[in-house]
Amino acid sequence: MNKHNLFSSTYKKWLGLALVICSLITVFGCGTLVNGRGWGQDATLFPGWDRVGKAALNAALEPETWAPAVGAAAFQIGSLDRNLANWASKRTPIFQSQDNANTASEALQATSEAAAVVTALATPSGEKSDDWAWAKAKGLTVGIAAVALTEGTTDLLKYTTNRTRPDNSGHDSFPSGHASRTAVCDTLATRNLRYLDVPDAACMGLRAGFFALTLSTGWARLEAKKHYPSDVLAGMAFGHFFGAFINDAFLGLDSPKNFFFSVEPSRKDIYCSLHWVY
Predict the structure, then answer these.
(1) Which of 277, 226, 251, 239 is nearest to 103 (CA)?
(2) Is 177 helix (H, G, I), strand (E, B) or coil?
(3) Pick from 103, 83, 81: nearest CA to 224
(4) Is 196 exposed, middle or buried (0-12, 13-18, 19+ CB in 10 A)?
(5) pTM to 2 decimal places
(6) Residue 175: is the preceding peptide bond cis (ω within 30°)?
(7) Quick check: 255 and 54 in contact, CB under 8 A?
(8) Per-residue DSSP letters for 198-233?
(9) 272 pairs with which residues across the strands?
(10) d(CA 245, CA 189)
(11) Confidence band (pLDDT; 50, 70, 90) for 263?
(12) What does the radius of gyration of the chain's CA atoms come to, in whole angstroms?
């Protein structure tokens, strides 16, 4: 078996194992949330402008949105964008070849998609089967809308920017579709963890794992010579923003506050601070 086939086989085994492990938690999908409602039960098309505005602001202020956006802008300085893309695709330090990197990006994206679906199914949505099914259908529709909006925005930008890929295989380099889709799915999966009864340590581990999936997918696209760093970072920013925004605005659940703004006056000055909770 050559190196490429061995690598593909390994990733398929890891993907299969991840799906099996994640599927085990679906047995906890019965019951209700702390407020007595089911996950997805209160999903709505008309959440109100106040909730929409707060969800949009919260999503924009989260580090997973603005940090990669700032990074994408920073890579426009000089030749940073092209230099890192060339180095990654030539050295392929993680995936060992461009073909392996391309295969890995597909497997990592599929794992993120599975994580979003499985965590949604694992959330408590009621004791009765018909109530459970209806709540899940509504909740999953919100997730599908987030993914669709992310992909629509990504495709629109690809068409309007017309950026040539590093390997000259097309003119749809910006932003990375793999990065944006993985980011939105991982964001939805992370949001779903809020409503699962799992230990704090396990929750933090899963959150870190989902974030690692997003980063790994983006890096794989660099080694595959399909994108520049700014393409990947922009895709991550769009994916997280739309995932967080659509989920928090339309799912109908109260989300914990992720940032706190405070003003502290003194005799001579006024101190303003903004704190994020991760």
Answers:
(1) 226
(2) helix
(3) 103
(4) middle
(5) 0.84
(6) yes
(7) no
(8) --HHHHHHHHHHHHHHHHHHHHHHHHTTS--HHHHH
(9) 263
(10) 14
(11) very low
(12) 20
Residue 228 identity (one-letter amino acid): Y
Residue 49 domain boundaries: 3-276
For the chain, what is the domain count?
Answer: 1
Residue 236 and residue 64 in contact, taking contact as beta carbons nearer than 8 Å: yes
**Integer Cα distance of 93 and 95 in angstroms:** 6
| pLDDT one-digit tens code per residue, 95-108 | 999 999 999 999 99
CA distance 261 to 106: 40
What CA–CA distance (Å, rounded) separates 157 from 41?
34
Mean predicted confidence (pLDDT) in 5-22: 52
Q: Is the pLDDT of residue 1 over 80?
A: no
In sign, the C-alpha dihedral spanning 158, 159, 163, 166 is: positive
3-state secondary structure of 270: strand
Query: What pLDDT, on the 0 to 100 scale, is given for residue 138?
Result: 97
**Which residue is listed with tokens 């659940």?**
253
Q: Is the dihedral of CA 16, 22, 25, 26 positive or negative?
A: negative
Tokens 């426009």 correspond to 76
* φ/ψ bin of 106: left (φ > 0), alpha (ψ from -120 to 50), beta (otherwise): alpha
CA separation, residue 168 to residues 165, 172, 218, 229 (Å): 5, 10, 18, 16
Structure tokens at 104: 């890995």
| 8 A C-beta contact, residue 77 and residue 100 | no
For helices 200-223 and 177-193, angle between their N-to-C axes, nearest 10 degrees: 180
Q: What sections of 75-97 are H helices per DSSP?
A: 80-91
DSSP letter at 57? Answer: H
Coil vs helix vs strand at 261: strand
